[in-house]
Amino acid sequence: MNAIKKYVAECIGTMVLVTIGCGTAMLVGCDAAKGCGYLLTALAFGLTIVGMAYCVGNISGCHINPAVSLGVLLNGGMTVSEFIGYVISQCIGALLGSGLLAAIFGLGGVADQTGGFGSNGLGGVNGSFFAGLLVEIVLTFIFVLTILGVTSKKAGHGSFGGVVIGFTLVLVHILGIGLTGTSVNPARSLGPAIVAACTGNTAPIACVWVFIAGPLIGAAFAALLYKWMESDDKKKA
């Protein structure tokens, strides 16, 4: 598959993820006490992954997440040059999605219930950088480990892989939204934070490093562990 086509697919997929996921959060809010908006946001992110998996998965693998791409890289599934191209495409897609939300909500005069284009924050962990980092490491570890297992040639999940991955994203959102807003995706966090900063809200960009470092660390742990477990299994076979 032509590399440019893969990059375009990743850009589109990430744009859709941010538009639908963050857009839903902006529209309904993510107040755990109310419940409805909390669950709708979790489902919006997860179901978008399901849709995009069957839309662009056959073209690029539907990573639409630098942390997932890092996991695939460390597991031997792509080259460094491909990884760089994927990450750049994903970040561009996230910026496009965030810009689209700014236009839709701005022109439509719709209130942003999140106050920052669906960007992530540390309010749920009382502003603790360490707690936020730990949350993102753990949730991304679970998410990426699941992806590597589902997409393994030995898994045999076939066409159901996208559903499993999508609902795993719903799962980690159910816990994480009330803590950090759930990133597990550096591009998804960076795009809204930059657009929020451009409109005068610099709070998200000040802590965005947590939502870049945490997912990447979690993904690296997941990839290294899964690679060890799978190689150990092959030696015994």
Rg (CA only): 17 Å
Strand segment count: 0
Label the overall shape: globular
> Runs with pLDDT <50, length 5+?
none
* Whole-number mean pLDDT: 93
Supply the helix-strand structural class: mainly alpha
For the terminal residues, how far apart are their CA atoms? 33 Å
Approximate helicity band: over 70%
Structural features, described:
The protein has 237 residues and is an all-alpha fold. Helix content is 73%, strand content 0%. It has nine helices and no strands. The two termini are 33 Å apart.
List the helices and strands and how they pair.
Layout: H1 3-28, H2 36-60, H3 66-74, H4 80-108, H5 129-151, H6 161-176, H7 186-198, H8 203-206, H9 210-236
Helix pairs in contact: 1-2, 1-4, 1-7, 2-6, 3-4, 3-5, 3-9, 4-7, 5-6, 5-9, 7-9
Give a summary of the structure in a few sentences:
With 237 residues, the protein is mainly alpha-helical. It is 73% helix and 0% strand. The radius of gyration is 17 Å and the shape is globular.
Task: Give me some keywords for this one.
0% strand; mainly alpha; 237 residues
